[in-house]
Amino acid sequence: MIRLLDVILSLAGLIIGSPVLAVLWVLAWFDTGAPLFWQIRAGRYQRPFNLVKFRSMRPDTASVATHLADASAVTKLGRFLRRTKLDELPQLWNVLKGDMSFVGPRPCLFNQSELIFERELHGVFNARPGITGLAQISGIDMSTPKLLAETDALMLREMCMLTYLMCIFKTVMGSGGGDHIKPR
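^ thats the sequence. predicted structure below, dont judge the formating
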């Protein structure tokens, strides 16, 4: 049922949100010259997939976990996109394709070995990664791998339609802050 809802909501989001996506594409083009950002992430069963987002950092920024990124790499538009979570909108395509769900553990990079280890321990990779989840609405980011994996596992154990809808609602209403870039 949740996969069906993922397909319906992502398709509707892409269609209804296409004017917003188009405006953000143009703004991001002027901001960085490369509006979209693709990155290989660990998906369900640790299968690699290409996650797509609006670019919020300069194109020459190293591919590291957000909490390890240099804060000066974030562009002015990127700060706005991150604060409003609009940088995540292109992931509707990942949801439609089946790489992701709306709700699930945020997909990590393959070089985040401590997080991968913790997620393997808790069986988190048995689920599709998500755009949002319990950790994100609770303000837990990838800088605390053990807590993140435990929170992801808790969410997956308790996943039902109500949990799914609550995570989406709280994300849209602004709960949590996502992965924070630490000022240097």
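The chain has one domain: 2-172.
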